[in-house]
Design goal:
Two copies of one chain form a homodimer. The first copy, chain A, has about 120 residues and is mostly helical. Chain A has five helices and two strands; from the N terminus they run αααββαα. Chain A has a two-stranded antiparallel ribbon. In chain A, β1 and β2 form a beta hairpin. In chain A, α1 crosses α3. The longest helix of chain A is centred in the last third of the chain and has 25 residues. Chains A and B meet through α1, α4 and α5 of A and α1, α4 and α5 of B. The first copy, chain A, binds a DNA duplex (30 and 30 nucleotides) through α3.
DNA sequence: ATTGTTGTACTAACCACATAATACAATAAA
DNA sequence: TTTATTGTATTATGTGGTTAGTACAACAAT
């Protein structure tokens, strides 16, 4: 399936975030090989240049390593991966809680909304 | 203070979201008058054209009403406002929970993270 | 009546993003 | 050695967002 991309934000940014999650979640394990620029661009249905830009950003963050003519691999630094995982989670939580508070929801109401979603999904899994 | 705007997304979209929250939270009460395009553009430090575009979108959604030569007011349809409030909240919750699950957090872990933030903030308020 | 404020429309210019189409060097695979 | 694949770089083109500047009609305030 082609990746779900929002036209409201730069595509390369969305590619970065998606691949970040795939790495953090273990879909691409530490030390594992990543698809080539061309292949992954084809899968995502974007231009190779755009995927190249996303990979460059991921490399700048240290999540992936480039071997000049033999593709790319996920970093083997699992400490870094775990750190980024927690960092991403905390940022999502902070933004979420702040946003809901701005909408006028109390702490208890926020927790209730979360539990509603979790219990609702529980019936399907 | 100038509004905090992210260069990663269209400014007018961020203006829409910010004003939405201000309306939903009651900062601009139902039936209340909104600043003029030029004034609010000056406050936010953006071009009047951009603010105009944001207002046009808000009007399309029904949140605000335009009086041709006498400014704009927030809709008096409080049922609509409450509906949008819940709609926004549920979407935020859904996206949040899904994102955290993709990062490999369990339901209990998600709840714990939320409680950490809430309790942490409690000490400052 | 005059002045000021309102929403609105228009053009020009700039820039970032995205795509398309090539091209090249390095190296793995055959 | 030859071929294919890799990352990478380049140029050109199109699109959308943003700003700047200007202008106009409608109406409130004076």
């Amino acid at each position: 399936m082609a990746w779900e991309l929002d036209s409201d934000r730069p595509i390369y940014t969305q590619l970065v975030e998606r691949i970040q999650v795939q790495i953090i979640s273990g879909y691409y394990p530490p030390g594992g090989k990543l698809p080539s620029v061309r292949d992954l661009a084809a899968v995502a249905a974007v231009n190779p240049n755009t995927m190249q830009k996303a990979f460059a950003e991921l490399e700048r963050e240290g999540l992936i390593v480039t071997q000049r003519t033999n593709g790319r691999t996920v970093t083997e630094d699992e400490t870094l991966l775990k750190g980024i995982r927690m960092q991403m989670a905390r940022e999502k939580v902070d933004v979420f809680v702040q946003t809901l508070k701005e909408l006028g929801f109390s702490q208890q109401e926020i927790l209730s909304l979360i539990q509603d979603v979790i219990e609702g999904e529980g019936k399907n899994e």
